[in-house]
């Protein structure tokens, strides 16, 4: 079967501006595949449009130019721009809505202890076992909604608000080690807890602040900003109430601090090398 002559079609595209100012025409058929292989052999970045006409603009993160809809961030390779389709925008919105519902459930139930009178009335009405059971159930539902909503949002494409410098990832990794040690120290109380008073809240604030410095997309700002605001609020509220807000564990000395640091370091390594890349989907220690 004879191939159709596309020379007239190519000339028509060039007249409409398919090849900008004197540049070679857009590659077709076999020429396109040759151009693709030539671009790969020259080591062009994975995110480049290798088949675009020479001289055509290739938008990048951080460059000026209008972008419609959320920006998709492909896994691996440079952070090239892809224009989101309407269904991706809808998925973004739905993911954020689910995540916000989870934040309301999780943080809302954790704000209840800040109001001692209401907390006491609730326990008197339903009983302490029922109160603790409902507290745990709502917290679990909130965590599931947060994880599911953020995953849906990320799958549809990040909505970037600002673009953190690359060195903020190192800041995040440095801050995460004491954050995890503080969380562990809350359950193995020693001098760390005696000095910090509420190491769990200190660890939460470090974790949230560290991730805010390294992530500039809308979903991350809402997620980590909410936890940072809650931890700050709860720390202030603790000064006004007699209830400690956390389970009481027997205090130890320097020995408990050593155990907390060792276990916190092991947990830090496990989270960075296993949990974050395989469960969250983002390598924590990538260069």
Number of domains: 2
State the share of residues found in helices, binned by percent. Answer: 55-70%
Shape summary? globular
Largest sheet: none
| String of helices and strands | HHHHHHHHHH
Find the structural class using helix and strand composition. mainly alpha
Give the number of DSSP strands.
0
> Rounded to an integer, what's the Rg over CA atoms?
26 Å
Beta content comes to under 5%
What's the mean pLDDT score? 76
Measured distance between first and last alpha carbons: 53 Å
List keywords for this structure.
globular; 10 helices; mainly alpha; 287 residues
Outline of the structure:
Helices cover 62% and strands 0% of the residues. By secondary structure, it is mainly α. The model is unreliable at 13-83 (pLDDT under 50).
Can you walk through the features of this model?
The protein is 62% helix and 0% strand. It is mainly α and 287 residues long. 22% of the residues are buried.
Helices and strands, with pairings:
Elements: H1 7-15, H2 29-41, H3 86-111, H4 116-126, H5 128-156, H6 167-185, H7 191-196, H8 199-214, H9 218-238, H10 254-280
Helix pairs in contact: 3-5, 3-9, 4-5, 6-8, 6-10, 8-9
